[in-house]
Amino acid sequence: MQAFWFGVIAVLWAGFFLLEGFDFGVGMLLPAVARTDERRQLALRTIGPVWDGNEVWLLVAGGATFAAFPEWYASVFSGFYLAFAVLLVGLIVRGIGLEYRGKAHTATGRSWCDAGIVVGSFLPALLLGVAFANFARGVKLDAAHVMTGSFFDLLSPYALLGGLVTLSLFLFHGSTFLALRTDGEVAAHAQRLGRLLGPAATVLGAIFLVWTATHRHGAVSLILAVLLAAVLIGAVGYQRAGRSGAAFVGTAVATVLVPIWAFAALWPNVLPASNNAANSLTIHNASSSHYTLTVMTVVALIFTPIVLAYQAWTYWVFRARVTGASLTPPGSATGQLIQRARESAQQAVRPQVRPADATGQQQ
Amino acid sequence: MDPTMLARWQFATTTIYHFLIVPISIGLTLQVAVMQTLAYRRGGSEAGLTWDRASRFWGRIMLILFALGVVTGIVQEFQFGMNWSEYSRFVGDIFGAPLAMEGLIAFFLESTFLGLWIFGRGILSPRLHLASIWLAAIGTVISAYFILAANSFMQHPVGLVYNTERHRVELTSIWKVLTNPTQLVTFPHTVFAALMTAAALLVSVSAWHLRRDGVQADPVHGKVVRMSIGVLLAAVIATSVVGHFQGQVMTRQQPMKMAAAEALWDGKSHAPFSLFAYANVEQGKNKVDIVIPDGLSLLATNTPGGHVQGINDVQAAEVAKYGPGSYVPVVWLAYWSFRLMMGFGFLAGLIGLALAWQWKRGRLSTSGRLLRVATWTVALPLLANSFGWLFTETARQPWLVYGLLRTKDGVSTNVGSGFVLTTLLGFTLLYGVLGVICFRLVRRAAQAGPDPALPPPAAERIDDQISLV
Within B46-107, where are the H helices? Predict the structure, then answer.
C-alpha cells in the first residue's frame, strides 16, 4: 500500500511536470517568441484554458503527500521553507498575470502582467529542479526527521545544476509546445529558439545524470537516466527536422521521466538523510496508517479515471491550432457582433435564393 | 518575536484574506450558473436575452475574483507543512485525507470546467457550456465541504485513536470525520453565508446602477437586484437558523468557546444574553454588562432556565482533565467577534428587508437614499465572515486540535522567527497590492455595466432593406 502511494505521488508529479512544464515554458518564452501584444495573446491562448487545471496536479501531489506520508510532507515543506515561499510567490504572480492580462486596460498594466508571467514561470521552473536534486541527494535530518541544514545548504552546486536542468527542459518543452500549437511568427520563433534550447537541456541533463551516477548506484535509476538522455536526444533530432509533433512527444516523455527518475532514485526512501542513514524518511516510517491509505486508495481509484477523462476531453475540445483568428473570443461583445454578422451574411444569402416571394409579398 | 505568534499571524492574515474571496467564488458562481440557466431555458425571449447579458456581465466579475481566490488558495495547501509541521505530523493521518480529497475531487473539477466555461463559449454546445459553469460551481461547494470537515476535526476531533508509539492520532473512521456533528452545522452555515456574501455583492452593484440611472437603468440590474434581494434574505435567515444550532453544538462540544463568546464568567441557570460587556480578566468578571434576561439559556439550551457553564467552571474542569494551565481564550476578542459576526449579518438582512419593502411598493429604482446605502451592502457579510472565523479560531485557543494538541506544540521547530517574519511581510505586501488591483478591476467592470444589447436579429433588417428596394 505504501508502495502504491509512492507510485501515485510519482505519477502526480509526472503529470504536473508534463502539463505545467509547457505552461512554465510558454510563460518564460513569452517575450522571446512574441513581441507584439497580439502575438503574446496568441501564445498565451495555447495555455489559457488549461493552466489552472494543470496547476492542480501540484496541489493534489501536495495533498496526497500530506494524506499518505504526513512525515514527508511535514519535513519537506518546513525544511524547504524559503524555497517554497518563493515558489508560492511565483505561482501567485503568474496566475494573476495570466488571468488579469486580458482585463488590463493599459499597455503598462499588460506589461506588468507579462512580467508576472515570466518571473512567475521562471521561479518554479528553477526551484522544482533544486528541490528534486536535494531530494535525490539527501538532506540533513535529525532523529525526529526534522531538517536541520540551513537554507544555503540547499543551494549546493549540484542542486543548482538540477534547477538549471528543469529550467532548460521546461523551456525546450514550451518551445516544442508552441511550435505545435500556434502558427506564423510565434511558431517560427519558438522553432528557432528550440534549436538552442534542445541541445542546452540535453547537455545540462547529461552532466547532471553523470554527476548523480558518481554517488548513487541503482540499476533502475541508471536505466531511466539512459532512457531520459536518449529521449532528449531524439527530441532534439525531431525538433531540428521540424517535426513538431514528434518533438513535442519527445519533450513530453522527457519531462515525465524526470520525476520518475527522481522517485526511482529515492526508493524506498522518501527523504534520505545525508548525515545519518538511520534518520532517513522511508515509505514505511513516513506513511499514514493502513486504514487511511485504504480509504485514500478507494477514493483515488474512483476519481482518478474521472479526472483523467475530463482533462483529456478538455484538451480535445481545445485541440485546434491557435491562430490569429482564434483571438476574438466568441464570448466577447466583439465576438458576438462578428458571430451575428456571420449569421446575417448567411441569412442574406437565403432570401436571394427565393427573392420572388419575399419581394412579391411586400409589394 | 515568538515564532508561534508569527506563524499564527501569518495563518490568520492569509486565511482571512483568502476567505474574503472564497465565499464570493462559491456564491457568485452558483448565481451566475442560475442566471445562465434562466437564459438557456428562456432562450430567444426578451427575458432570456436579459439573463444572458446578466450572466456574461456577472461572469466577468466572478472571474476577476475567482483568480485571486485560486492563487491565494495555493498558499493554504502548503502552509500546514511550512509553518505547522509538528501539527502536520500529529494529525496528518486524519487531516491530510480531506485535503487530498478536496484536491482530487473538487479542485480539478472547478479549475478544468471553469477553463472550459471561459474559453468554450461558441466552441461547446450551449448545453455543455451551461453544464461547465454548474460543474465548476459544484466543485466550489465540494471543496468547501472537505476543507470544513478538516476544520471541524480541529474543533471537535472524532473518528480517531491515539498512537502512543508514534505520538500521533490515527484515523479509525473516515465516515465519522466527514459526518462530524460540528461539520453538519458548520458546512451549511458557511455555504449560506457564502450565498449571502455573493447576493450582497449583486445587490451592491445593481443598487449603484439603479441609483445612477433610475428607471432608465439597464433591465439587467432590475432583474438581478430582484433575484439577489430574495437570495440575500433567504441566506440571512438560513445562516442565522443554522448558526443557532451551531451554537448549541458548540455549547456541548466546546463549552469554553460559548462561555467566552458570552463573557459569562460563572455558570448559571437563566443565563442572560449579553449585548454589551466590558470584562476584567484578572478578576474573572465583567465590569459593565447589558443583557437580555434568559437569552443565553434560551439560545444554548432551548429553555429559559437552562444551565450554561461559565468560563471559570470550564477552566476548573479542563485543569482537572488536562493538567494545570490556562484554558481561557482572549475573552474580549471572542465576545466582540461573536457579536460583530452576528451584527453585520443581521444588518445585511435589514438592508435586504428595506429593499424588498420598496420593491413591493414599486419604488425601488427611485429610492435614492436607500440605494446609496445598499451600495455598501457587500461590506457587511465580508466583515461578518471575517469576524466569524476570528471567533471560531481564536476562541478555541490554547488548543489547535481541541483537547488533543496545543497551538504552541503544532508549530514548525526548525523555521526561525526571521523566516516567518519575512514571509509574513512578503505575503502581506503581495496580497495588499493584489487586493488593490483586484478591487479596481472589479469596480471598473461593475461600473461599466453589461455589454449593450445586441442589434435586433439580422433577418428583420434584411426584410426592411428588401422592402426598401
Answer: 46-83, 85-101
CB pair distance less than 8 Å for A292 and B96: yes
For A255-264, the pLDDT digits (tens) are 999 999 888 8
Interface of A with B in 142-171 (CB under 8 A): 146-148, 151
C-alpha cell at A100: 488579469
Asked if A95 contacts B70 with a C-beta cutoff of 8 angstroms, the reply is: yes
Question: CB distance B466–A359 less than 8 Å?
Answer: yes
Q: Tell me the per-residue pLDDT of A33-89, one tens digit each, with 9 for 90 and over.
A: 888 888 888 889 889 888 888 889 999 999 999 999 999 999 989 888 888 999 999
Bridge partners of B278, per DSSP, are B288
A83 — contact with chain B (CB < 8 Å)?
no
> Where would I find the beta strands (DSSP E) of chain A?
269-271, 281-282
- A203-224: b (≥16 Cβ within 10 Å) or e: ebbbebbebbeeebeeeebbeb
Q: CB neighbours (10 Å) of residue B46?
A: 10
Q: Contact B92/A74, CB-based, under 8 Å?
A: yes
Residue among B80, B95, B107 minimizing CB distance to A56 = B107
Who contacts A177 (Cβ-Cβ below 8 Å, separation ≥6)? A22, A25, A26, A46, A248, A251
User: What's the whole-number mean pLDDT along residues B105-120?
Assistant: 92
B227-250: pLDDT as tens digits:
999 999 999 999 999 998 998 899
Task: Pick B414 or B352 by higher pLDDT.
Answer: B352
Residue A331: pLDDT band with limits 50, 70, 90? very low
Q: Which residues contact B8 (CB under 8 A, 6 or more apart)?
A: B407
Spatial separation of the C-alpha atoms in residues B318 and B326, rounded to whole Å:
9
Neighbour count for residue A293 (Cβ, 10 Å) = 21
Residue A217, min C-alpha distance to chain B (Å): 31
Give which of B79, B80, B82 to mutate to test A binding, by max A Cβ within 10 Å: B82
Is this model's pTM higher than 0.80 or not?
A: yes
Q: How far apart are CA A262 and CA B263, in angstroms?
A: 56
Q: What is the mean pLDDT of chain B?
A: 88
Flag if A55 and B451 touch (Cβ within 8 Å). Answer: no
Answer whether B466 sits within 8 Å of A99, measured CB to CB: no
Q: Say what the pLDDT of residue B455 is.
A: 55
Q: Cell digits for B79?
A: 502552509
> Looking at chain A from residue 257 to 296, which residues have their Cβ under 8 Å from any Cβ of chain B?
288-289, 291-292, 295-296
**Under an 8 A CB cutoff, do A148 and B105 touch?**
no
For B:163-202, CB contacts with A below 8 A are 163, 168, 170-172, 174
DSSP state of B162: E
| HSE value, Cβ hemisphere, 13 Å, CA-based, for B18 | 18
Residue A116 cell numbers, joined: 508576472
Q: Does this complex have an ipTM over 0.90?
A: no
CA distances from B252 to A188, B309, B389 (A): 68, 10, 19
